[in-house]
Amino acid sequence: MNNTLDTALRQLNLPWIRANLDEEVALAVRKSRPHHELLERLVEGELATRFSRSVERRLRQARLPRRPTLASFDFNWPNRINADQVRHLFTLNFMENASNVVFIGSVGVGKSHLAAALAVQACERRKNALFVAAAAMLNDLLEAGQAGGLPKALKRYLHPDLLVVDELGYLPIDKLGAELLFQVLAGRYEKASTVITTNRIYIDWVQTFANDAAMTSAVLDRVVHHCETVVIEGKSFRMKNRVEQE
Questions:
Q1: Are the beta carbons of 190 and 100 closer than 8 angstroms?
Q2: pLDDT, averaged across the chain
Q3: Domains held by the chain: number
Q4: Which tops the pLDDT comparison, 50 or 102?
Q5: What would the mean pLDDT of 184-196 be, rounded to a whole number?
Q6: Strands (E), 44-115
Q7: pLDDT computed for residue 239 by the predictor
Q8: Which end of the chain is more exposed for a tag (fewer CB within 10 A), N or C?
């Protein structure tokens, strides 16, 4: 490759073609490939690289603690789970009409695994996702409010195509925290999908929201209007190896 062509490819931001052009041309000559086939291979290689970079960027921005998949979830472990319902969620059809998903179950049954895997799936479909623990999100919003930056902080949670709020209900939320969470859920209502994992059934959410029945009702109204609820029952996955050894 001459310097002029190398410079042009650099300016056009075509790194895969720059890196593979000589090899692809040599291969095309050996296999007597027509020019249009060579061009197709070069363009396909560049597009595949851009797609991979785009997915990886979205995965980093999602702030996932890990990158689980549906395939790595053991459906045989829970005592109760609607496997067909869960598998259908991974088509991401629920995102088309901004529906929500709520995973309900005790500690360690795989709620966070499935929620994070949905975020991974969304990123792989080139959607923007964000994974955040409920307590961390509320602390962020509280600190932003004290510093006069609440509107900007709220945008971080309103903007993603898919927001995963993990471990809602594990720690109590005071009235201000409930109001902030309401702002997030109300702002996303019928605009973008939210996935929530919780250890509390809906009737017990009032205990999470400072025993404020009106606020709880307002939150639930936004969450469950368009929602897939997945109940998981069973022992903790973290105890699986110990149980199997007994």
A1: no
A2: 90
A3: 2
A4: 102
A5: 96
A6: 100-105
A7: 58
A8: C
